[in-house]
Structure formats: C-alpha cells, structure tokens
Design brief:
The chain has about 425 residues and is an alpha/beta fold. The chain is built from 13 helices and 15 strands. It has helices at about 1-15, 100-105, 105-125, 140-150, 195-205, 235-245, 260-265, 280-290, 300-310, 315-335, 360-365, 370-375, 380-385, and strands at about 30-35, 45-50, 55-60, 70-80, 85-90, 125-130, 155-160, 165, 210-215, 250-255, 270-275, 290-295, 400-405, 420, 425. A 7-stranded mixed sheet has the order 3-2-1-4-13-14-15, with no helix packed on it. α9 (about 300-310) packs antiparallel against α10. Bound molecules: zinc ion.
C-alpha cells in the first residue's frame, strides 16, 4: 500500500520528487495556483515561492526560476501555510473507555504510540502543534526531540512536559488507583501550594518543556472534577506565571468555568484552553487583556457519539453535554467581540489526523473561511510567539500545503489536503 501510494504521488508530480527528499542545498520553485499567505486576507494568483535551506526565500509573481531550481507545479492548487493545531495530545494513548490505559502503557510504549500520532498528524497537513499535556510526564519532550533529530516524522512540536494541577485535579489520572500510588512520572506536575507550583514549573522547564499548561478548573474527562469548579488557586497560578514568564516561556490554562477563566486571566496567563462556560464579562476580560482563546468546538460531537457507543464513563458524557453547546455559543460571541482565537482541537480525545474537522464548526459558529484559516496559520503562530512558522513569507520555514478544492468556497476542503511540505521536504 505504501508502495502504491508512492507511485501515485510520483506520477502526480510528474517527477521523482519524493524518491529523493530534497537535500538542504536544493532550491525549489513552487508555482502556486492561488496563494493564501496566512497573515493577510488576500488570495493572490500567479505567485511563485522560492525555497532553499528549509526556508522560504522569496514570494512574488512567477518569472524565471532560479538557476538549478526544481520546479514544483502546484498551479492547479490553492497553496497555504502548513496548518497549526494549538491543542493536541500526541504523546499519549488517546481517550478510550479504559481509564487505566495511560498507566498500563510504559513510557516507551507511550512515546512510540506518539510517533505514530505525529506521523498521521503531519501527513494530514498539520506541520506544527502545541502539545498541551501527557499523563506520562516528559514523553512529549522525548517525541519532540526525536522529530527534531529527524528520527521520527512529525510536526514541529511545542510541548508542556506535564499538567500543572492540584492533587486529584483535572490534570490527574483519577479513578484508577489511589493517586498517591500512581507512578512518579505521572505526577510531575501535581502541586498543592504556590511554592510547589513554582518548583514544578521550574522542574518542567529545566527538563525540556517549551511552555506551561495549568489546570485552572475541573475537566470533562477526569473523574471527580467539575468543569465549572476552579482548581489551581489565583496564588498558585500567579506563582507559575511568575516563574515561566521570567524565563520567557508562555503559560496556558485549561479552564471551562467563568471563575477559573477569570482567575487565570488575572494571573497573567497567555491563553485559555476550552473556555466552554465563558460568560460575557469573562470574554470582555479576555479581550481587554489580549488573552488568546483555544476553543475545541468540534470534539463534543465525537465524545457524545463514540463515547456513548464505547461506554465511556457516564460522568464524562454528562459533563460533555453540559459544556458542548455552551462552548459553541461562547465561541460565537468571542468571534463577534474580536477576541484572539487560535485553532485548537484537543486531538487525542478524538483520533489524530482528523484535526481539520473543526474548521467546519468554526465557520458554522461565526468565522469566515479566511478567519478560520488564519486561526490555524498566522494567528496560531502569533499565539505561540513564533515568527518562523504560520505564513508564506520570506524567512519562515517552508511549511506549505496544497489543496485541489477551494477552501474559501468550502472549508471542509482542508480535511483532504493533497500535498504537504515541511521545511522544504515533501511529506506527501
Ligand atoms: Zn486537552
């Protein structure tokens, strides 16, 4: 099957482009049928992209290709920046009815499952992800490093290391064994006091985390916690933010309920995950502080459908029902208010590789197709504080995708990306 797909692609490209992954020195000249750059609302035609040394060197009207450049004919495609998902869990087993699964799997097995998840994610057009937590602490660091070395195919990863959570909170694997008996690497981010929270933050950053993920309220998918209830205290959140920001690292907060969201924003976090029960005042506060919202408005349908069929805990299904429609309403209002929104799906709750399904929901709940695209390209890069991805412009990594159908006419076109390039190397 792999063999057939290879042959098909080679034929489609009318060149043995895939057989030889471009060497770093090779220059590419990509002819883009329609170009969406990820940072403007323009759709340009007749544009060519020059790529060398993994980066975009030039973008402009097509003319003579640089000497020795390999031509990539994407004149029949819409060409966009590689997509970015700001809320994934690659280095984990994925949600299932077996609550003990994350504990039964060794760190090594978890990392190898993560390698598979990373490959699938990249192949579907997501060339960067922010990975917002793993039960097996630091397996995400291992996976990111393997991808960076080129040992594993996957998106660029920005990892949290572990969940910063109160004991028995939304970031713990509750309901399997007494939490005190969980393996030590499953409790790297558990903190009962502000001092502990500060120390754990420093530990995770010392061990390779790129940013910090805090759990500011209970979670839908954690036994014994309630999405509406605050968890990490304002003092704990402030202690975490102080340590992380002093090192130039960002902090994001899982928060469903309005009080927890407010606590996190006032503590100075950079972004809020979920924001399901955000009310008008909270959304206005996010707008005022420039806090980003990462709202996973697709996966509620998946949980209801598959969770019910597979027999996930009734508590999970109940909490999912209590947050899904509310979150979509809050998203719609956030779009109206012009709050910063980055593309964030919670892949891992649903199978990796379906990340693009959420685009349809974001358009249904108020975004234009271009806004939805920018949430997963230029805006997502901005939320991550990265100027090296998320746009087709000189200086950025040559992370580029091509789709035959027009995503501005039908945003679901992004669910079937035809070609994916990461750092100038063709993935598919
Ligand atoms: Zn998540």
């Amino acid at each position: 099957m792999q063999h057939l797909r290879r042959r098909h692609l080679i034929a489609a490209l009318a060149a043995s482009f895939l057989a030889t992954t471009p060497a770093a020195a090779e220059t590419l000249y990509i002819e883009a049928g329609r170009l969406i750059d990820g940072v403007s609302n323009d759709v340009r035609t007749g544009q060519c992209i020059t790529v060398a040394d993994e980066h975009i060197k030039a973008v402009g009207p097509c003319g003579k290709a640089p000497d020795g450049a390999r031509i990539v004919d994407w004149s029949g495609y819409t060409v966009l920046p590689g997509l970015i998902d700001l809320h994934t869990h690659l280095a984990d087993l994925g949600q299932s009815a077996d609550l003990a699964a994350p504990m039964k799997a060794s760190p090594a097995e978890t990392a190898l499952v993560g390698a598979r998840n990373a490959r699938v994610t990249l192949e579907t057009g997501f060339t960067s992800v922010r990975d917002v937590g793993t039960y097996r602490g630091l397996t995400d660091v291992t996976l990111r490093n393997a991808i960076d070395r080129g040992d594993v195919h996957g998106p660029r990863m920005w990892v949290a290391g572990a969940y910063l959570t109160i004991p028995k909170g939304g970031g713990e694997l509750n309901g399997v064994v007494p939490n005190e008996e969980l393996p030590a690497d499953m409790r790297l981010g558990v903190a009962a006091t502000p001092d502990e929270a500060a120390a754990k933050t420093a530990y995770l950053l010392d061990h390779g985390a790129d940013f910090i993920k805090t759990i500011a309220t209970g979670a839908v998918l954690a036994i014994g916690t309630e999405p509406g209830a605050p968890e990490l205290t304002p003092e704990q959140l402030a202690a975490i933010v102080k340590v992380a920001h002093a090192r130039g690292k960002k902090v994001t907060a899982h928060a469903h309920g309005a009080i927890g969201i407010r606590n996190a924003i006032l503590a100075g976090v950079d972004s809020i995950e979920h924001a399901s029960l955000a009310d008008e005042t909270t959304l206005q506060l996010a707008k005022k502080h420039g806090t980003w919202l990462a709202m996973d408005i697709y996966n509620g349908d998946y949980i209801e459908d598959i969770g019910t069929k597979e027999g996930w805990p009734e508590e999970y299904l109940r909490k999912n029902r209590e947050t899904t429609d509310a979150q979509r309403a809050a998203f719609k209002r956030a779009v109206e208010l012009g709050v910063n929104i980055g593309y964030a799906t919670d892949a891992g709750v649903y199978p990796h590789g379906l990340n693009a399904r959420q685009f349809r929901y974001m358009v249904k709940y108020g975004m234009t197709p271009m806004q939805a695209i920018r949430s997963a390209t230029g805006c997502a890069a901005e939320e991550m504080g990265r100027g090296d991805v998320g746009a087709i412009e000189p200086g950025r990594y040559a992370d580029i995708i091509a789709v035959k159908a027009d995503p501005l006419a039908d945003i679901s076109a992004l669910e079937k990306v035809d070609h994916v390039m990461k750092g100038g190397a063709l993935v598919r």
